[in-house]
């Protein structure tokens, strides 16, 4: 007789065999239930630990309070934002770099050229607030797309900045506005602030759209620095300097890098925007105009000389890569004066 697992020399009584089968089935069922319960408990514990590790981001040194020395410090304060802590993605995304590596060997430097992308600029009436806001939002959308792509290539977490394109006075975590600067980036709120009428006045009524696209792309460059882990280390090291001139040296490198990142972005949209040679010259003219004054004192030199401002903007435009914008590891230190 076939009993399921081989023949037995003796046949058990039918009732006894059925009871044995039921006991075996019951034991197997109980064992399966126990194993499933243990698996669920293990999965829940791991999930709770993973979500809890990023629940409370570290606060920056002065991320909760305005920085009074704001006009010569990109980003204004170290980040207290959760996105900037660089929490690793469970599917292999690396953490944002930190320390000196974030400056000189940032993974973002290895992401290659910014890909050409469609970014047709809407018409711009600089005297109309809604037109300015619409234009800036359109360019910011392109910046979000461009830099999200580069960060994805680097495997670094990235969150686009908030936008505050204002026409009424207000207060950011970094400073009130209007201020000496018509546009600024505040790391404490990961936001770009631009006065829609203020910048037109400060830029002497310029009507060429690329001037305002370049300004926005520069401030966005500081956000790129923040998201890549660079800006936090920059602030830490800058604040350790007792000599104001040494602090200025740190600031110049950051500002010149933002110029370069702006140039790289503008080059990536020059076909679809579109931008011609006259636009490029306007961008370089703006780089000269926003550089340090030749007759200014050393204590005022925070943005680089006119020649260096033009150099780094051109370098970004021509090479179109984040690697071209590494102002922190140079053989020729005169390029950041």
UniProtKB/TrEMBL annotation:
It is a single-pass membrane protein. Residues 49-99, 288-316 are annotated as: Disordered. Its main location: membrane. It holds the Pfam family Zn_peptidase. Keywords: Membrane, Transmembrane, Transmembrane helix. The keyword Transmembrane applies. The chain crosses the membrane at residues 24-43. It is found in: Membrane. Residues 289-304 have a biased composition (Basic and acidic residues). It comes from the Bacteria. PANTHER family: INNER MEMBRANE PROTEIN, PUTATIVE MEMBRANE PROTEIN YPFJ. This is Neutral zinc metallopeptidase. It comes from Streptomonospora nanhaiensis.
């Amino acid at each position: 007789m076939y009993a399921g697992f081989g023949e037995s020399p003796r046949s058990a009584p039918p009732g006894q065999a059925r009871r044995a089968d039921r006991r075996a089935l019951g034991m197997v069922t109980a064992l399966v239930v126990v194993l499933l319960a243990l698996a669920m408990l293990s999965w829940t514990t791991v999930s709770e630990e993973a979500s809890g590790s990023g629940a409370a981001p570290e606060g920056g040194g002065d991320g909760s309070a305005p920085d009074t020395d704001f006009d010569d410090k990109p980003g204004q304060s170290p980040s207290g934002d959760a996105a900037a802590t660089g929490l690793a993605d469970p599917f292999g995304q690396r953490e944002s770099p930190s320390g000196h590596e974030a400056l000189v060997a940032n993974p973002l430097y290895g992401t290659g050229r910014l890909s050409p992308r469609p970014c047709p600029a809407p018409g711009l009436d600089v005297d109309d607030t809604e037109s300015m806001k619409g234009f800036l939002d359109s360019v910011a959308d392109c910046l979000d797309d461009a830099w999200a792509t580069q960060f994805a290539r680097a495997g670094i977490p990235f969150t686009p900045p908030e936008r505050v394109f204002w026409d009424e006075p207000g207060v950011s975590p970094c400073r009130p506005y209007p201020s000496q600067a018509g546009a600024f980036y505040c790391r404490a709120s990961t936001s770009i602030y631009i006065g829609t009428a203020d910048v037109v006045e400060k830029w002497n009524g310029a009507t060429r759209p690329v001037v305002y696209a370049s300004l926005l792309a520069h401030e966005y460059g500081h956000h790129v620095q923040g998201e890549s882990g660079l800006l936090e280390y920059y602030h830490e090291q800058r604040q350790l300097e007792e000599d104001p001139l040494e602090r200025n040296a740190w600031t110049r490198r950051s500002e010149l890098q933002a110029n370069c990142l702006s140039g790289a972005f503008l080059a990536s949209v020059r076909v679809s925007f579109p931008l011609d040679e006259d636009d490029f010259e306007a961008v370089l003219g703006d780089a000269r105009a926003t550089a340090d004054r030749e007759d200014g004192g050393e204590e005022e030199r925070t943005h680089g000389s006119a020649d260096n401002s033009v150099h780094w903007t051109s370098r970004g435009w021509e090479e179109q890569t984040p690697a071209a914008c590494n102002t922190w590891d140079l053989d020729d230190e005169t390029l950041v004066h």
